[in-house]
Amino acid sequence: MEKTGFAKEISIWDLKGKIVIIAEKPKAASKIAPALSPKYNVYKLYGVPYYVINTGYSHIYIVPAAGHLYGLDTSISGYPVFEYDWKPIYEIDRNAKHTYYFLKTIEKLCSEADYYVNACDYDIEGSVIGYLIIKFHGNIEKSFRAKFSSLAYEELRESFRRLNRLDWEMIEAGLCRHELDWLWGINISRALMNAVREVSNKKIVLSAGRVQTPTLKYVVDNNISRNLFIPIPQYTLSVTIIKDGKEFRLDYAGSTIETRDEAENLIKILNTDKLLLVTDYREEVVNYNPLPAFNLGDLQSEAARIYGFSPYKTQSIAEKLYLEALISYPRTNSQKLPPSINYRVIVESLGKIDRYRNLVRELLAETHGYLKPVQGVKEDPAHPAIYPTGNIPSNLSVDEWKIYDLITRRFLAAFASKAVVERRHVVFKHSDSYKLVFQTSGQKVIIQGWLKYYPFITIEERIIPKFRVGERVIVSNAEFKRIFTKPPERISKIKLLKWMESVEIGTESTRARIIELLFKRKYLRNTSRGAEATDIGLGVIEVLSEYFPELTSVELTRFFEKEMEKIRNGFKNRNEVIEEARNTIKKLLSRFDDKKIELGQLLCLRLGLLKTKNKCILCNREVYNRNLCKYHYLAFEEIKKQYLVWKNRERVDYKQYISILKRLNSTGRWIKEVLNILDNIQ
């Protein structure tokens, strides 16, 4: 791509003639116009509102897009396909017919313009949206970029006083992401659908994606582990001591007690010699720094923890608050707030809102008006952490208030003092066994600090007396308790998003949307047990894992994420990365054709398009061994294997073992299904 356009910073008021400003959405356009001038006129063309400002020497048109107006498409059928073009999205997606009128309006207003300004959101997607519009309807060589992090009037005015060249690195990275996602998606999806059609003569819509498929595999792997889980018994001790005439419970802190015999022996020791020795006692005052202002991932996590909101719901609400100019740009990874923001003005404005009036008064008194926010670790080159603009909210729904309130309180807390907590920790040991180690802790909040501004985090207080090392205490009660190992944690939408963050696949903007897509495609479903893979989702991953493990791996996806980051930082060329992807896809598809029928048969079985001759006695999958499918056979083998562990630890026979497993809630679903028909297998 030839990187043309203006190189120097320039004010929009220095430009003469017809100037067209492209906003990402109508709401954004409605904020930009009054920010630039109170003397603006509103018109409509094809039902699309646009705004005009006349200065005497320039005519400024603010026209909205409706998000993406162009998408990738090809006229080539089959696969592999590596030829594609950008086309109006209404020609590709039947649900995007409304974009036709936006494009017609843009086409009309962009004609004969002297200059163009991309004022879409300052991120990769916004850079691509504006670039493609100007490319097809304007002139790249006469184009500028507006950069802002909120739709507050003063920030918008400042951004248009300091227009820059087009952000070529972000444009290149954005185009690359679209092309990579399209190439992976269309080629692998077509290959899967072709395999199904070859075997069943039926056209079934299946999809696979560069980020979508590894994400689905993570859920599938978790589900398999949970469904095959057998809880293993172990033991813990609970003792109560007497101190100053009061009883206190201690937690067991020794090494794992594996057998009932060992647990009984330890209790016998405690009942024989009821004295414990204090071997360690610590008092400390701990300072807890305020949490930094939110990035999108942190906001999604807190909204899920406190209100049960899905990541997508939180992101959607935050984007609406941004378009209402109530908060800064939400799709950011940053936990930092720069000194360029006028915090005093924002905080004082928040003080005009009833629910924050007293908090603001306390904060200004506490800080003496010197507002310096705590900074987090994570950074984003494009935007700061999320902060309220100070504009007064009106007509917000209950859920919108919840998200706004989270953001505002977290912002205020970032300027507050540390929370101070006094903690006590004591360790006890018994003289007759190294395993008899116990501990207890207590804590008390001395200074609330930032916790009073952000009440969604509480420190549970527990008061314990003072001890001294060498002191002996009397055990008033001692008992053992059987506990069980726990299955892998259930996956919720927010846990899935945090996993995507941790392995660095997807972006702040796309992760929540990809998760929702997996549910929309019916690869995942919501249950009381969390997100679960459907038979279709399980089947797709089973096929891809067996025949094309590269497609399901995080490593391949993360490799291309890193490559795109290099493009964004100016260290790599987009064409190089696309060529790497093409070569990878070609190699995968060449192997695919050799196994297409075999793969298609397996997919058709999972989709219920082929009848299984020998069906598992517990499900519709084909028999693998002992009249069981692969998964139920694995469950059968696991039951036999873990009995040896149970027998050693619990002194139970096989019948008792089976009976206990049936009663335990944590026993895996496939395990329980096999337990119920065990007599028919053996």
Automatic annotation (TrEMBL):
<dbReference type="GO" id="GO:0006281">
    <property type="term" value="P:DNA repair"/>
</dbReference>
<keyword id="KW-0479">Metal-binding</keyword>
<dbReference type="InterPro" id="IPR013824">
    <property type="entry name" value="Topo_IA_cen_sub1"/>
</dbReference>
<dbReference type="GO" id="GO:0003677">
    <property type="term" value="F:DNA binding"/>
</dbReference>
<dbReference type="InterPro" id="IPR013825">
    <property type="entry name" value="Topo_IA_cen_sub2"/>
</dbReference>
<dbReference type="InterPro" id="IPR006171">
    <property type="entry name" value="TOPRIM_dom"/>
</dbReference>
<keyword id="KW-0460">Magnesium</keyword>
<feature type="site" description="Interaction with DNA">
    <location>
        <position position="177"/>
    </location>
</feature>
<feature type="domain" description="Toprim">
    <location>
        <begin position="18"/>
        <end position="156"/>
    </location>
</feature>
<dbReference type="InterPro" id="IPR005739">
    <property type="entry name" value="TopoI_arch"/>
</dbReference>
<dbReference type="InterPro" id="IPR003602">
    <property type="entry name" value="Topo_IA_DNA-bd_dom"/>
</dbReference>
<dbReference type="GO" id="GO:0003917">
    <property type="term" value="F:DNA topoisomerase type I (single strand cut, ATP-independent) activity"/>
</dbReference>
<keyword id="KW-0413">Isomerase</keyword>
<comment type="function">
    <text>Releases the supercoiling and torsional tension of DNA, which is introduced during the DNA replication and transcription, by transiently cleaving and rejoining one strand of the DNA duplex. Introduces a single-strand break via transesterification at a target site in duplex DNA. The scissile phosphodiester is attacked by the catalytic tyrosine of the enzyme, resulting in the formation of a DNA-(5'-phosphotyrosyl)-enzyme intermediate and the expulsion of a 3'-OH DNA strand. The free DNA strand then undergoes passage around the unbroken strand, thus removing DNA supercoils.</text>
</comment>
<keyword id="KW-0799">Topoisomerase</keyword>
<comment type="similarity">
    <text>Belongs to the type IA topoisomerase family.</text>
</comment>
<keyword id="KW-0238">DNA-binding</keyword>
<dbReference type="InterPro" id="IPR013826">
    <property type="entry name" value="Topo_IA_cen_sub3"/>
</dbReference>
<dbReference type="InterPro" id="IPR028612">
    <property type="entry name" value="Topoisom_1_IA"/>
</dbReference>
<dbReference type="Pfam" id="PF01751">
    <property type="entry name" value="Toprim"/>
</dbReference>
<dbReference type="GO" id="GO:0006265">
    <property type="term" value="P:DNA topological change"/>
</dbReference>
<keyword id="KW-0862">Zinc</keyword>
<feature type="site" description="Interaction with DNA">
    <location>
        <position position="331"/>
    </location>
</feature>
<dbReference type="InterPro" id="IPR013497">
    <property type="entry name" value="Topo_IA_cen"/>
</dbReference>
<feature type="site" description="Interaction with DNA">
    <location>
        <position position="181"/>
    </location>
</feature>
<feature type="site" description="Interaction with DNA">
    <location>
        <position position="68"/>
    </location>
</feature>
<dbReference type="Pfam" id="PF01131">
    <property type="entry name" value="Topoisom_bac"/>
</dbReference>
<feature type="active site" description="O-(5'-phospho-DNA)-tyrosine intermediate">
    <location>
        <position position="329"/>
    </location>
</feature>
<dbReference type="GO" id="GO:0006310">
    <property type="term" value="P:DNA recombination"/>
</dbReference>
<dbReference type="InterPro" id="IPR003601">
    <property type="entry name" value="Topo_IA_2"/>
</dbReference>
<dbReference type="InterPro" id="IPR023406">
    <property type="entry name" value="Topo_IA_AS"/>
</dbReference>
<feature type="site" description="Interaction with DNA">
    <location>
        <position position="521"/>
    </location>
</feature>
<feature type="domain" description="Topo IA-type catalytic">
    <location>
        <begin position="167"/>
        <end position="589"/>
    </location>
</feature>
<dbReference type="InterPro" id="IPR000380">
    <property type="entry name" value="Topo_IA"/>
</dbReference>
<comment type="subunit">
    <text>Monomer.</text>
</comment>
<feature type="region of interest" description="Interaction with DNA">
    <location>
        <begin position="207"/>
        <end position="212"/>
    </location>
</feature>
<dbReference type="GO" id="GO:0046872">
    <property type="term" value="F:metal ion binding"/>
</dbReference>
<protein>
    <recommendedName>
        <fullName>DNA topoisomerase 1</fullName>
        <ecNumber>5.6.2.1</ecNumber>
    </recommendedName>
</protein>
<dbReference type="InterPro" id="IPR023405">
    <property type="entry name" value="Topo_IA_core_domain"/>
</dbReference>
